Amino acid sequence: MTANPALRELLRGDAPALRGRKSLAEEAAGALRDLILLEKLAPGAPIPEQDVADALGISRTPMREAMRLLELEGLVEFTATRRARVANPSLDELAQYLVVLGALEALAGECACEQASAEEIETVSRLNDEMLASSDCAHALGFFRIDMAFHRAIVLASHNAPLIETHRHYNARLWRARFISSRRRLNREGTLRQHTEIAAAIAARDRAACARTLRGHLETAVVNIRQALAERNDARQPQS
Asked: At CA 65, angle to CA 63 and CA 71, rounded to 5?
């Protein structure tokens, strides 16, 4: 029996059943990823591999592979004694990654303006419409997945394989940071306006406007993350 019944209950209550559509490792990584993004597993919290494996009904081998996948995404890190815990990168580290990601997405937008097919442009527009329609009612993770699909569609429309692969690597490491920015409702109106401007620039094949707005969009993410972390720290301060 797992030594952590609270963790078992959390996984049972919030994680989807592992049904084999993907590998067991990918399914397990997906279950933990959602809990980390929603901060039901808090930054810095230990992740006991055996307890999680028991709770999900899988062996240690796919569990270790799941942890490795999440480590590559920057969601999990290991101590010197190889104990897993939820990663807790500093704002400075996240900001540095977001600067690079902003440059990558700006370049992808420029390439997409030249290379995207009519169908790909329609996909970007449709995803933007979905975000606008679901902004007030979608579950945080659901809205975030549409948000990331929007950005991924632009990168894929660049038809530049090295750029697509480099973006995939950097974006994976910023998954949680981008979720923090995406779920923030206070600045959402401005964020949605930027998405609409990006979609319009791609439809017009306006390279300069697309690159400028995408870079500014990632700069907005840094602001959102800084504000969200400051609010979290303020909430943790003892009341006088």
From this structure: 105
Confidence of residue 14 (pLDDT cuts 50, 70, 90): very low
Residue bearing tokens 């948000």: 147
Q: pTM value?
A: 0.76
Judged against a pLDDT cut of 70, whether residue 240 lies above it is answered with no
**Sign, CA torsion 151/157/163/164:** positive
E strand residue ranges, the chain: 76-78, 84-86
Averaged over 188-202, what is the pLDDT?
93
Give the C-alpha separation, 194 to 120, whole Å. Answer: 19
**Looking at residue 176, what is its pLDDT?**
82
Cβ-defined contacts of 60-69 (< 8 Å, 24+): 62/23, 62/24, 62/25, 62/28, 63/25, 63/28, 65/23, 65/25, 66/24, 66/25, 66/26, 66/28, 66/29, 66/32, 67/29, 69/25, 69/26, 69/29
Average pLDDT value for residue range 136-143: 79
Range 158-171 average pLDDT:
94
β-strand partners of 77 = 85
Percent of all residues in the chain with a pLDDT value above 90, rounded to a whole number: 45
Give the β-pairing of 76-78 and 84-86.
antiparallel
User: Does residue 84 contact residue 67 with C-beta atoms inside 8 Å?
Assistant: yes
Q: Any idea what DSSP says for residue 46? A: B
DSSP 100: H
